Amino acid sequence: MNAPFNARAAMRDPFQAFVCDDATADMLRPIAVEHGWSPEKVNKGGLRNGVQSLSVSASPNILFVDLSESADPLNDINALAEVCEPGTVVIAAGQVNDVRLYRDLVASGIHDYLLKPFTVDQLRDTFTHAQAMLSGPRGEAQVDRPHVMTTVVGVRGGVGASTIATSLAWLLGDKAHRSTALLDLDIHFGTGALALDLEPGRGLTDAIENPSRIDGLFIERAMVRANERLSVLSAEAPINQPLVTDGTAFFQLQEEMKNAFESTVVDLPRQMLIQYPHMVHDSHVAVVVCEMTLAATRDTIRLLAWLKANAPQTKVILVSNRMPSGGALEIGRKDFEQSIERSVDIVINEDGKLAAQAAKLGKPVAAVAGGKAAQPYLTLCNMVLSHATEDGADAAAKTAKAAAAPGEGGKSLVGGLKSMLAKKAA
């Protein structure tokens, strides 16, 4: 029921309403005429009649439903979502004056909730906004704001890649004002939904088990909305049930998300790079999350080499996460950068109190952080957007230049790692 899903909008009726009383119907009909819609599309029967009618016919571009006779408005709206096609802008009206209900209804996908009694001007303004929503943001504006796909992968387990992926997705929605999808591909132990205080649902596991079902309508129903601009597709699959897939579902999910959202953030477990290398092929940016340890140094070298060979068009941003204070490093930053033959782009310091606060509030770390603590996340968001939209030739030239730059002289504790790995491979 969200506006981004409007590809088929021109093929459906522009307007339809299901109301509970004559007063509301009499108010709606003249406004429908003002917009060039048929007044006969204002029907009696409320939400229940609407669900029955739309189950056997195409849903309109703009749908007005009256919840006055609904005993459980939120569940009834969810039932409506089952029969609504992608792209329908839903306006609801009711008599319950409860801000929690309003928030829940908006989170479930409706455009607006009008409290009865409402005025003609309120109704007119709501329809004007709904029409504006249908015409954007994915029309002409798409040329100015092309889709941005980012893959976040950790070089080791526990480096905080999922934390960064969730924060990045939240920032793309909240600060960059982009409709954003977070795709958490850790099927059994993913934390994307958990970090946002959401239930993951079965959408992702259903997609993997039945790739043929994946389309715009499936995406709309399977995604769990965190807020107005951020939706999540995650899973908590039973750990005694391995999911077997050839990766087709993942590719189709990415394709549908390109059509439905302005940004996609893929939280990709590193082992999936081996099984499904195509997952990174369409990514504009790969955010590689590392730490200053010997094992992470080895795996950073290997992962950067893999990306260079398998996704040369993808811009890499290297993030060192959970940098301990007081210089208690297993490997110094200078030695680390010499070994991997490139600089770390962003450093995020260890902050246990901030992480605990974010977990208690059910919010991403970037949403809770302030001042200096927030700056690395904001920098990452800006870098992702700038790298994704810069000219391809310039990006390739910069990447080549960075790869050709030799590291600074001097021997380090792990200076021979790269040569050792090269000899082993030979």
Through-space gap between termini: 55 Å
Tally of individual helices: 19
Name of the top-level CATH class of the largest domain: Alpha Beta
Structural domain count: 2
If strands are numbered along the chain, what order do they take across the biggest sheet? 8-9-7-10-6-11-12-13
The named CATH superfamily of the largest domain: P-loop containing nucleotide triphosphate hydrolases
Secondary-structure topology with pairs:
Blueprint: E1 15-19, H1 22-34, E2 42-44, H2 46-54, E3 62-66, H3 73-83, E4 89-94, H4 99-108, E5 112-115, H5 120-134, H6 141-144, E6 148-154, H7 161-174, E7 180-184, H8 192-195, H9 203-209, H10 216-222, E8 224-225, E9 230-233, H11 248-260, E10 263-267, H12 271-275, E11 285-290, H13 294-310, E12 315-323, H14 333-340, E13 346-349, H15 352-361, H16 365-368, H17 375-389, H18 392-404, H19 417-425
Parallel strand pairs: 1-2, 1-3, 3-4, 4-5, 6-10, 6-11, 7-9, 7-10, 11-12, 12-13
Antiparallel strand pairs: 8-9
Helix pairs in contact: 2-3, 3-4, 7-17
Tell me briefly what this model is.
With 426 residues, the protein is an alpha/beta fold. Helix content is 44%, strand content 15%.
